[in-house]
Amino acid sequence: MGRKLPAGGKLVLASHNKGKLVELTDLLRPYQIEIVSAGALGLPEPEETAPDFAGNARIKALAAATAAGLPAFSDDSGFCAAALAGEPGVMSARWGGPDKDFSKAMALVNERVGASTDRRAWFVAALCLAWPDGHTETFVGRVDGTMVWPPRGDKGFGYDPMFVAEGREQTFGEMDPDAKHAISHRARAFAQVMRSCVE
Ligand code: IMP
Predict the structure, then answer these.
(1) What's the confidence (pLDDT) of residue 137?
(2) Could you tell me if the CB of 146 is within 6 A of ligand 1?
(3) Residue 2 has what pLDDT?
(4) Can you name the residues that pair with 137 across neighbouring β-strands?
(5) Domain range for residue 66?
(6) Residue 118 lies in a domain
C-alpha cells in the first residue's frame, strides 16, 4: 500500500504536454482532488535525463513537488516499435522535433520501420506521485498493439493515429476519449495509482 494523498488536497500536474494534461484531468475528475498545472504555477520543465520512463516520471514529479511545496503527479510515456527495438520510447517527444510535430515523428517511425513485417508496437506510461519531502510512488502501464500506415483519426494526440490496440480496429486517434481511457497505458497505470494512493 502506498502513501495516501489527502482527500480534498491540491495536486500539481507536472506536465506541460496539452494532450496528457487533458487525459490526466479526465482521469482525475471523479476524485476529490484539486488540480493545478505546473504551467499555471510557472514551474520550469526539468531535463529528462533518465534512461527509462519510470526514472523520467520521478524527475518531473519530484522537481514539481519540491518547487511547489505540494504533492505532484507526473507522466512519462511514449510509443515503442518492436522493429526499432523499442524506439522512439523515452525519446518519443523529441522525435517530434522543436515544433513537436507528430505527423513528422510518425512519418519517421514509418520510414525507419521500412519494409519490416514486424508491426508490433506498444505505448508505455509511467505515472509518479511525489511529495515535497522526497517520497515517490511510481506505477507503469502498457498497452500492446500494432502500428498502421497511413495514420488515421484526429482525436487524441502524439502517435495515437498510427496505433491500433490488440483486439480493436480503430486507431487511438479514431477512438472517443472514453474508449481510449478504457484500455490505454495511461489509464492502466492510473488505476494502480488510485488503488494504492487514493482512499
Ligand atoms: P514525454 O513523456 O513528455 O517525454 O512525452 C511523451 C511523448 O510520447 C508525447 O509527446 C507523445 O508524443 C507520446 N505519447 C505518450 N502517450 C501518448 C498517447 O497516449 N498517445 C499518443 N502519443 C503518446
Answers:
(1) 97
(2) no
(3) 78
(4) 129
(5) 10-197
(6) yes
Q: Is the CB of 156 under 6 A from ligand 1?
A: yes
Which atom of ligand 1 lies closest to the CA of 172?
Answer: 20
C-alpha to C-alpha distance for 63 and 193, rounded to whole angstroms: 19
Residue 80 lies in a domain: yes
CATH no. for residue 163?
3.90.950.10
What is the tens place of the pLDDT at every residue in 4-38? 987 788 999 998 888 888 999 989 988 888 899 99
Distance 19 CA to ligand 1 centre (A): 8
In this structure, is residue 129 part of a structural domain? yes
161 lines ligand 1 (CB under 6 A): no
Q: What proportions of the chain, in percent to the nearest 5, are helix, strand and coil?
A: 35, 25, 40
For residues 103 and 188, give the distance between their C-alpha atoms in angstroms, rounded to a whole number: 26
CA of 79 to the centre of ligand 1 (A): 7
| CA 77–ligand 1 middle distance (angstroms) | 5
CA dihedral defined by 163, 165, 169, 174, rounded to 10 degrees?
A: -50
Verify whether ligand 1 is closer than 6 Å to residue 121 (CB atom): no
Indicate whether this model's pTM tops 0.70.
yes
75 is catalytic: no
Q: How many domains does the chain have?
A: 1
pLDDT digits (tens, 9 = 90+) for 139-192: 999 999 999 999 999 999 999 999 999 999 999 999 999 999 999 999 999 999
